[in-house]
Design goal:
The protein is mostly helical. The chain contains 13 helices and no strands.
Length: about 260
């Protein structure tokens, strides 16, 4: 008799350790098989993050997205945390009780086959396409929001940093970033201030309708670029564009995963 490997079955079996271990083991095997099948016809790009790259190569690509030396070191710190927190075997979606309205039932199970590592890399890659060189040094904060936006989905990372288990994944991601920023030695007070006042709130808001509307108003589109100086002098506009870009990158990556894993 075959096991039900759906995300819902994982959630419902939490009280049965033996059943849970069996489901997790088979789900990991299925994710690995899908990854192996996809890799056979995949051409790797040396300027884009990819789960089929060696870790060292991805670390090099990741820091290449950032311009500030301090932000490069900080991004490397976060990337290492990601690899050490089993993002490569963690599903990129959370239990159905917490799912986004973006995904309907059919697509929810399909996208659950995308690992958290793959989804995170994909959103950062999408952010590069959205922002490119548009925001100068301020682009570092756009990449940072894409990198950390779903860190709260990792059970290992949640445990490592004692994140509040009552929070939803995006809230945990924001809490994680706040903890790391406040304790890192890699950032200046300037960088810390921008991250705590802009990136942390944006990550917290990207799945919360009320907070999204408060930042974006009624317009969630990413309009034409503004000069870096304009964003520096307009914190409200900066936060709005940051959230708008994160939502766009996240949504576009989910659409890609839906096509990739629905076959």
């Amino acid at each position: 008799m075959s096991r039900d490997l759906s995300v819902e079955s994982l959630w419902l079996s939490m009280g049965n350790a033996s059943l849970l271990a069996d489901i997790i083991s088979k789900k990991k095997a299925r994710i690995r098989q899908i990854s192996e099948d996809n890799s056979k016809s995949k051409t790797l790009k040396d300027d884009m993050l990819d789960i089929f790259h060696d870790r060292k190569i991805n670390e090099k690509i990741m820091i290449g997205f950032f311009q500030s030396k301090q932000m490069k070191l900080f991004a490397l710190e976060l990337t290492r945390d990601m690899y050490e927190s089993d993002f490569n075997v963690c599903s990129s979606v959370v239990p159905k009780i917490e799912k986004s309205n973006i995904l309907v039932d059919e697509s929810y199970e399909a996208t659950s086959n995308s690992t958290l590592l793959e989804h995170t890399f994909g959103v950062v890659n999408m952010m590069k396409k959205i922002c490119e060189t548009r925001y100068g040094l301020y682009g570092d904060f756009f990449y940072l929001s894409a990198l950390v936006h779903d860190f709260g989905k990792s059970f290992v990372l949640n445990t490592k940093y004692s994140l509040d288990h009552t929070l939803k994944h995006h809230q945990k991601s924001a809490e994680y970033l706040k903890i790391i920023v406040e304790n890192t030695k890699n950032l200046s007070s300037f960088h810390k201030d921008i991250i705590l006042k802009n990136v942390v709130p944006v990550i917290d808001a990207h799945h919360t309708d009320e907070l999204r509307k408060k930042i974006l108003g009624t317009d969630e589109s990413l309009k034409s670029s503004k000069k870096e100086e304009y964003l520096q002098n307009s914190p409200t506009e900066f936060k709005k564009r940051l959230l708008s870009a994160l939502i766009a990158a996240d949504t576009q990556q989910r659409a890609y995963e839906l096509v990739e894993y629905s076959a």
